[in-house]
Write a structure and sequence with these properties.
Elements lengths: L5 H6 L4 H20 L9 H8 L4 H11 L4 E4 L6 H6 L3 E4 L8 H4 L9 H12 L3 H5 L2 E6 L2 H13 L3 E5 L6 H22 L5 H24 L9 H10 L5 H21 L10 E6 L8 H8 L3 E6 L4 H4 L10 H12 L11 H13 L4 E7 L3 H16 L3 E7 L6 H15 L1
Parallel strand pairs: 1-2, 1-3, 3-4, 5-6, 5-7, 7-8
The structure holds iron/sulfur cluster (SF4) (2 copies).
Length: 425
């Protein structure tokens, strides 16, 4: 960042000292983990620029939009429908929960045995280091797992503009009705916040923008089926992470340009790693910026991550919304149809996810799958065991990993991952 953004951060109420510390650590990890990679596609320069300005230029854009009357909505989960937000000319940003911050203070409010993702949301708020969170006119929390549901009761005390969305736990007719009602309520809340009446035309536009973004991300995903893989798992994950922050139109255009370059690389047989490098499918909990720990260890050990079965990955993007409704009711039904297909582990039963992982392993030519759960995340940890049995029954190599955001277990993880890669090689 060349511009001095400190007055802007000060105006947002950030703790400048703590924020400097965050940026310094983020910059160091980015250099060591992302920029040090060899053979990166040239068009990844766009992502490097976005990341270098993630708390700078992007926040400036958001504040300018706010001055022009637009609203900013922060979200923690892929169940929050960006289509409705865009329809009201508002901007949705993902709130990153990918690193520990102010852990000691956080554990005075919520128990130590809460997953890192939830703790991270508290850490960012308590230490006032997230300009996205501070710029948000509304923050949406969703009742997904028990951890989040109960933690939001406490978070509401820190974030008064926290809007809670209830989510079903079962994919039944009643579950569908609940989601439909929640989306209807959300539409009303967004209308009230923005003062903009959401018309059919507006909602269709919101759906089209979001569909285009997801199509570009799936185009990228499918290109990774090639051998040699045209892009590293770390770079692909970074793109999936930035999808939550960047302007959706600009982002979609840039990702399609990256895909054009990847198509050329595939034609030339130019990979991020040599052909026949062991291929890993990564499955499990979402990995928000700057959580690069597991793919970093995998690729450092000489394998390549070829897909993410995750909300920051294929689980989050693969379904599109049928955009041909003629009324708001029809379009809301189409949105519910789309979101109801997300196979998050909070649903019971959730057999689709197991099926999807098996299909991805096959389609991406994975030699093995690594399942990653955050410690204390019961939904994903519990699902990983039957999944392991099923894939192993199909003679597919499977490794279950539980970790958190600290670097304390790095040596142990490295040993396990290296041994796994040796087996699948
Ligand atoms: S894993 Fe479930 S709760 Fe988490 S972001 Fe995805 S859909 Fe939401
Ligand atoms: S990682 Fe697991 S425990 Fe944590 S918020 Fe997501 S579903 Fe809940």
């Amino acid at each position: 960042m060349t511009t001095d953004y400190r007055p802007m951060w000060q105006e947002l109420g950030l703790d400048l000292k703590a924020h400097d510390n965050l940026l310094q650590n983020l910059g160091k990890s980015y250099q060591e983990i992302i920029l040090s990679q060899k053979n990166r596609p040239e068009s990844m320069a766009y992502l490097d620029f976005v990341m270098s300005e993630v708390h700078g230029l992007r926040i400036k854009e958001l504040l300018e939009a706010k001055r022009n009357g637009r609203k900013v909505i922060g979200a923690f989960c892929v169940f929050v429908p960006e289509e409705i937000v865009l329809a009201a000319d508002a901007i949705m940003v993902g709130l990153c929960t990918g690193t520990d911050f102010a852990l000691e203070d956080v554990e005075k409010i919520i128990p130590r045995n809460t997953c890192s993702l939830i703790k991270s949301a508290f850490g960012f708020k308590l230490s006032r280091v997230c300009p996205f969170l501070e710029a948000a006119d509304m923050v949406v929390g969703e009742n997904t797992c028990d951890g989040k549901k109960k933690a939001y009761e406490q978070l509401k005390e820190l974030i008064p503009n926290l809007y809670i969305m209830d989510l079903p736990q079962q994919k039944t007719a009643i579950g569908r009705q609940l989601l439909r009602q929640e989306y209807q309520n959300f539409l009303a809340a967004i209308t009230e916040l923005t003062g903009i009446e959401i018309t059919v035309e507006r909602l269709r536009r919101g759906i089209a923008i979001t569909n285009n973004k997801r199509e570009a991300l799936m185009r990228l995903a499918h290109l990774r089926q090639a051998d040699p893989a045209p892009i590293s798992g770390l770079d692909a994950l970074l793109i999936n992470q930035v999808a939550f922050y960047d302007d959706p139109l600009r982002f979609t255009e840039s990702i399609n340009k990256i895909c054009d370059e990847l198509e050329e690389r595939i034609k030339l047989g130019n990979g991020a790693f040599p052909a026949a490098t062991p291929r890993i499918l990564l499955s499990g909990c979402p990995m928000a910026v700057p959580n690069w720990k597991i793919p970093w260890l995998i690729e450092r050990a000489g394998a390549v991550v070829v897909g993410e079965e995750s909300c920051v990955g294929e689980r989050g993007w693969r379904n599109l919304t049928v955009n041909n409704g003629n009324t708001i009711d029809e379009l809301l039904d189409a949105l519910v149809d789309r979101y109801f297909n997300i196979d998050c582990a909070i649903f019971t039963p959730n057999a689709e996810r197991e099926q999807h992982v098996a299909e991805m392993a096959q389609n991406y030519g994975a030699d093995g799958t690594i399942h990653y759960s955050l410690q204390f995340c019961q939904p994903y940890s519990i699902e990983s065991m039957p999944m392991e049995r099923r894939l192993q029954d199909q003679d597919h190599n499977f490794l279950r990993i539980e970790t958190d955001y600290s670097m304390e277990d790095i040596g142990q993880l490295q040993t396990r991952i290296e041994a796994f890669i040796e087996i699948i090689s």
